[in-house]
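In this section we walk through a basic example: taking a raw amino acid sequence and producing a predicted 3D structure, encoded as discrete structure tokens. The instruction is simple. Fold the sequence below.
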Amino acid sequence: MYTTVFLDVGIKFPFSEFECGVLSHLKCAPSQIHPNAWAFVRGFEILMEYLGVDPLLEVFFTFFQAKGVRKGDLVTLNSVQRKTLFSLYRQSYNDFKEIFVKVTCAEDQFPFYLDEFGLERFPLYWAERGHSASNVIKTEEGVVLNQPAEKKRVPSMKRRRAEEGGSGRR
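The resulting token sequence is shown next.
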């Protein structure tokens, strides 16, 4: 995670249920969300808390739309037209990617990024929307491990036909 998200925006671990819900909905890693987008998430959460209402994803996404998710880019959030709640936290975030920390779970706590079935609630690495490149494996000891999935190389049609012994032309 980029340190500015902790120092400037006030995001803390473990993520709140709402923050986990946003990550799960966007299917992106925490470090993939731009600091201004994190500020919108946290600002909305604080506003709802002040109003005495639970923050709901459906309400949040009526005010904000995500960009960059499908491409696997840095995800930004913009106000939906004519529904502006907040302005940008900072107009320019320069060099925010330069200072970051690696976060690990405490041994005595259940990882907040897993659901009750031991499956990832959101990816821990950058990935395109809807694609997961890791598997969660439970060992006999009950330890949950995240391991990158094997990348399968799909042979081209030309190569498959050659391996099958046909010319591919009929």
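Looking at the output, two observations stand out. The two ends are 55 Å apart (CA to CA). Residues 35-51 form the longest helix (17 residues). In the next section we compare this with other chains.
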